[in-house]
Input
Amino acid sequence: MPLVSVKNLTRIFDVSKPWLNRVIERRKKAFLTAVNDVSFEIEERSVYALVGESGSGKSTIGKMLVGLLQPSSGSVEIRGVDLARETDAAKIDGVRADIQMIFQDPFASLNPRWRVRDIIVEPVASRGKDTTGMAEKLLEQVGLSVRDAGKFPHEFSGGQRQRICIARALASEPKLIVCDEPTSALDVSVQAQVLNLMSDLRDEFGLTYLFISHDLTVVQHMADKVGVLYLGMLVEEAAPDELFDDPKHPYTQMLLDAAPKLGDYGRDVPPPVGEIPDPINPPTGCPYHPRCPLVQDVCRRDRPVLRKLRGARVACHMAE
Amino acid sequence: MTDTPLPPDAPIEVKDPSRLRLALDSDFFYTFKRSPVAVVSFSVVSIMVLAAVFAPWIAPHDPFNPGSLNLMNGFSAPMEPNAFTGDIFWLGTDDQGRDVFSTILYGMRISLFVGAAAVAFAMVLGVTLGLLAGYVGGWTETIIMRIADVQLTFPAILVAMLIFGVAKGITPVEYRDQMAIWVLILAIGLSDWVQFARVVRGATLVEKNKEYVQAARLIGRTSPAIMLRHILPNVLSPVLVIATISLALAIIAEATLSFLGVGAPPTQPSLGTLIRIGQGFLFSGEWWILLFPAVTLLTLALSVNLLGDWLRDALNPRLR
Amino acid sequence: MTGPILSIRNLTVEIPTRHGILRPVDGISYDIGRGEILGIVGESGAGKSMAGNAVIDLLSPPAHIAGGEIWVNGTRIDQLKGDAMRRLRGKEIGMVFQDPLTSLNPLLRIGDQLTETILAHLPLSRAQAKDRAIKALDEVGIPGATERINSYPHEFSGGMRQRVVIALALCAEPSLIIADEPTTALDVSVQAQIIALLKALCRNRGTAVMLITHDMGVIAEAADRVAVMYAGKLAELGAVRDVLGAPRHPYTDGLMGSTPLASRGKARLHQIPGAMPALDNLPQGCAFHPRCPYAQSICKTQMPTLADGDGAACFFPLPHTAEVA
Ligand SMILES: Nc1ncnc2c1ncn2[C@@H]1O[C@H](COP(=O)(O)OP(=O)(O)OP(=O)(O)O)[C@@H](O)[C@H]1O
Ligand SMILES: Nc1ncnc2c1ncn2[C@@H]1O[C@H](COP(=O)(O)OP(=O)(O)OP(=O)(O)O)[C@@H](O)[C@H]1O
Ligand SMILES: [Mg+2]
Ligand SMILES: [Mg+2]
Output
């Protein structure tokens, strides 16, 4: 049984203006579908990566997974428990302790008025358990010094703060950690340290990661399976080697081409055309059709469903 | 894998730097020491507060003990021997022979107490409502903030007079003088909570979306715990600034009410009451009965205000 | 015109603080020629933005230029103040920042912002200025420039806004553009578009570009030459191919090693231990020595210098023969 199974997950935000403005300007209510019918599964002890450009719904999926947001429809089941629908408080609490999250901004994710020790043990202390010596042990595990426990967050660099976040995430001995762009605010040399640390901890504690990123090379380095999101829809899912060697969706292809390459000095390729459409009024049919080089009539009309294709799942009428 | 040398395995005692030590090392204390305005106004305020607190021990006379009063001492000019008794009073005496210096000390006691208590009341009320409005949102927010908006359209002093009048109307006559001080505190406090609520709501809206708050929600912390332990400490800096500036305003408001005769009763005169009494003698040549309380009030309000201004600049990182 | 467009010699920026004087930029020198893109890379806090801001006198006090010279088109500009500097900025030097919103006035139509800038720097009539504004928008690839000129900044997407900012930086036809992380806030596909645009402009007009970024991939694709900064100093300077392909400074080498690459697969990333030291806590000698795998005793006491022109500021530049390593 997979650790996480996401089924037809959808999240719609109400982005209407206030009622009075709507009446005066004669507008209808506006809805934004941030996540649209997404299904995938995460095996225990694996790394599942979600990639996509800004606004594609990566963080929204992550937040629904950990229970910070409620799905509009569909479900997230973690070890068979659906956090949004389960009524047994003990079960909810058990699953809660199994999930943790690491956020993108290492400066905003630590309370500036708390000492590092209190920050790290909060997940455990809030359940009323004993925490003596725990922060110190965790700090060593993430490569910081015992002495750092008494300091305040502002005394640390971005990379060190991200280590503190990781230590906090480890405190409740979770099974699953949702990492929302954990290294995109860090420099490459620090990113390498944090990525290595995350790999080490995964082996050591048998963790499962949902790894959210917009950086394809990082994803390729970390992931066992990659899901590509576009406008809230899962357009392709494959193992990294398969995805990078043989991208099947034209959007994946475009992303791979657009990413800067270290080896290609002065590369001159025609840049991709168009931009991500307005998510409030998405295109009909396939969301990518206005930018797609392969577009046909059927793409404008019907939304493609995920189908199996050579070791991958892809949502494209034309891919073959 | 570590970037800081790990300490030896033996359990080592790690002593956290105390908060006082950190405060003395802080940039805040450093800028304080370097600002003449801050040091002077802080000293003046401290001296006046101490003088007020220890008035019964400092004051050369007890102006409220009829037994110690000698009507013959009435209208002594400052530093001049009294025509009948030969006693010398630093700041002169009033019509009943009360030492003006002593009445000022006792008056300051009332003024400062009323001001501080009113601000404390406004602060607790405003911060609580502001936190609730910002964190809970929805109808709670709408109701609280609309009440605040409506109250803001009336001048604070008018609101205070209104509350004072109503409260006075419903207290039985025999308790009126006893209750006057408490009613004053209530009136001034209620007229002043709005700015606390507004600022705290704004700051809460910012903090609430920071990732450390999401991290706390994720581990199942309850809303009251998040508001009190996480958000409150981070919205306190602006509250401190407003509290200081409000203190100056509250002292003036109290003086104004007392001057208009609706505040502190003559049996417990505040600086405002003293000024009201004193103005009756201005044109008959006994200027000191008015002048010295007025100068004291001015110095007190000005110093507190300067301190507040400095605090605002010092706590605003963008101006530094 | 021959000679470099921008020439910086021994530029030093200082910030006096209560802990002593900090030097976020410490004695850096480089040139940018006509039509050349110089990439400036380095970790956060290395002083990249400070170096860029110093050129156009945008340092926020107490930071100030404490030494060195800045030449633009053969004129020394580091001593210019107030009006003279303002005239030069915009006329000779255009600026593109990371966040396009901060460079645009949200209350003005973009057409008005463009025409104002043009009128301030070029002797044109209002109608001519408007024509030129439309041309500038056209040039940066905004479709329907004639109508879009009446839009407000918030009506554009992030990528389009950055194009407008570039148009704004270009409209007075400056000879130098300083772009401080122009694509960091943008998506990869938009980033690719903006970089292609910068490259085209540079090629067609001969504009010199100082491209500040921390993304090695962007540098590799866009820049002709690259300057690697570390703790306020230049660690390495040279043609992109040489510096990224065969780094001579151990820091550049480490940076390249820690970038995840498709070709490296899942192998553990090479990592530079530690972090860049804080400015008020710089080690003696070479600032990189505590993290350097090749450090010798001389590195701990003496500061290596960058030979005039290209090269690495290192006593033991790579590649090492067997006995040094
Ligand atoms: N609370 C909200 N209210 C309204 N719209 C929202 C809300 N949260 C997210 N959205 C919208 O949902 C879409 C997906 O947002 P999300 O944050 O999941 O994107 P993302 O893929 O994480 O992007 P990024 O790379 O920028 O973090 C966006 O269009 C966003 O504007
Ligand atoms: N007012 C100040 N007081 C003290 N130090 C400062 C001040 N302003 C900037 N610094 C320091 O100057 C150094 C250089 O900053 P700069 O903004 O140039 O870095 P950068 O290389 O552009 O980094 P980034 O990639 O984060 O933009 C930093 O270490 C910063 O901490
Ligand atoms: Mg996100
Ligand atoms: Mg910068």
